[in-house]
Design a protein that fits this description.
Largest sheet: 8 strands, mixed
Oligomer: single chain
Radius of gyration: 24 Å
Number of strands: 22
Strand content: 35-45%
CATH class of the largest domain: Alpha Beta
Helix content: 10-25%
CATH topology of the largest domain: Aminopeptidase
CATH superfamily of the largest domain: Gcn5-related N-acetyltransferase (GNAT)
Number of helices: 11
Distance between the termini: 48 Å
CATH architecture of the largest domain: 3-Layer(aba) Sandwich
Number of domains: 3
Structural class: alpha+beta
């Protein structure tokens, strides 16, 4: 019998799945490739098999049962709202191999290969630890898988892996990074997936007890002309990094906010904030992969957590153009709804602006809110940013429609000298 310590689910996820009865949605694939998604109320976590079992009336006649009998694959998501104010959605999504079991009570049994969840915050230690070469005295593990596709399919397969394989890796507790390598070789394109893990137990949470078994996705058969069915694992014996990292960024102290280096255990909270209606309207739904890449310093943008009264209330990020003839930096941020309208956004932008001017030597900064986001525009004007011009159909909203943006900029000499870091006691870097 499976126990919680060997389960594919975390303790928080198991508590959610075993708690009050919630409606779920199961997804299968029809004979013509069309997804079939329907609500189901009769489902349970099967502790003996560590599976999600779904049943219903005259179940063996349903399309979902027949789909699973044919494809052997299914996904299910269980979700609800923990609260409306603040907006806090919760969910557990399970994807994997599925069985259509003909029995006295027919059922679909989904064996987890991918588990993605959000909104299940507890006071316990975060599921993802900090960066570094060792975890509790053990070396990190590198997992390597290789495959090849036809050259004309190379770009499409890379995009497919970004949407399936990469999220599949990074959402597993203990994953420390994903690198997808590719090269053209004659009439085919070769791929190498290199992933780092805290331990062999973390790899097993991804691949199963037989950790060398390669994990495949529904459309792999269509793309791959050659593939490893077994992955290889190596112990990381040495690591040297060049350049800066998120952990090397200073902590910046404003009048009311603190901007500090982003950590992996901030990701879940920031995803909750980005999922709030008043934030998602401008930013779209949270992308856990992208948030995590920022926390690990693997993004082209540099991000910091915004704290107020010791609580994470948002994210602020910047990117730098270092071409000498066009050198400048751009800023963007979001705040939880209940922190808006309190001057925290202006303070965060002002604090980061002073740092970029004083410490990075930028003479010009830009920011580009939606043209109809008046509260944001007013907040940036308080710092000294001025409208430059309207950018027509500049950004696409979550509903797919295009909207105008407003380019604003700030020159170094226009930032109030009273906002200098020296007068605030420096950057607050306590290293």
């Amino acid at each position: 019998m499976a126990t919680d310590t060997t389960s594919a689910f975390s303790e928080a996820e198991l508590a959610y799945l075993r708690g009050e009865r919630r409606l779920a949605r199961i997804a299968t694939v029809g004979r013509d490739g069309t997804p079939h998604v329907v609500p189901v109320g009769m489902w349970t976590h099967n502790a003996e098999h560590d599976t999600i079992d779904v049943t219903g009336r005259q179940f063996e006649r349903t399309k979902k049962f027949l789909d699973v009998a044919r494809t052997g694959r299914a996904a299910i998501v269980v979700d609800d709202l923990a609260s409306v104010d603040p907006w806090r959605p919760r969910a557990v999504e399970v994807r994997g191999r599925a069985e259509a079991i003909h029995d006295r009570h027919p059922l679909i049994r989904i064996h987890p290969e991918r588990v993605v969840s959000w909104g299940h915050r507890t006071d316990s230690a975060p599921r993802h630890g900090g960066a570094g070469i060792r975890r509790e005295g053990r070396a990190m593990i590198a997992r390597i898988w290789t495959g090849a596709v036809r050259k004309q399919d190379g770009a499409a397969y890379a995009d497919y892996m970004r949407r399936t394989g990469v999220p599949g890796y990074v959402t597993v507790p203990g994953n420390r990074g994903v690198w997808m390598l590719r090269r053209d070789a004659g009439d085919r394109t070769e791929f190498v997936m290199l992933t780092l893990w805290d331990s062999l137990d973390a790899v097993k949470a991804f691949a199963g007890e037989d950790l060398e078994t390669a994990v495949f996705y529904p459309e792999d058969e269509r793309f791959l002309i050659e593939r490893d069915v077994r992955a290889k694992h190596y112990e990381l014996a040495h690591e040297t990094r060049s350049g800066g990292s998120v952990s090397e960024l200073p902590t910046l102290r404003g009048r009311t906010v603190v901007l500090r280096p982003l950590r992996l255990d901030d990701v879940e909270r920031l995803a909750e904030i980005q999922a709030e209606q008043g934030v998602a309207r401008w930013w779209g739904p949270p992308d856990l992969v992208e948030l995590r890449s920022k926390a690990e310093g693997r993004s082209e943008e540099t991000a910091l957590a915004i704290e107020a009264d010791g609580e994470v209330v948002g994210l602020i990020k910047f990117h730098e153009e270092d071409e000498p003839d066009f050198r400048h930096a751009g800023i963007d941020l979001f705040l939880t709804e209940r922190a808006q309208g309190r001057g925290l956004g202006s303070d965060a932008v002002r604090t980061l602006a002073r740092y970029l001017i004083d410490e990075h030597g930028h003479h010009r900064l830009t920011i580009d809110p939606a043209a109809d986001n008046r509260p944001a525009i007013r907040a940036y004007e308080k710092v000294g940013f001025r409208p430059v011009g309207r950018m027509r159909e500049y950004w696409r909203s979550p509903d797919g429609s295009w909207h105008d943006g407003l380019l604003m900029d700030l020159l170094a000499r226009e930032l109030d000298p009273r906002d200098s870091l020296e007068q605030k006691g420096g950057t607050g870097d306590e290293g």
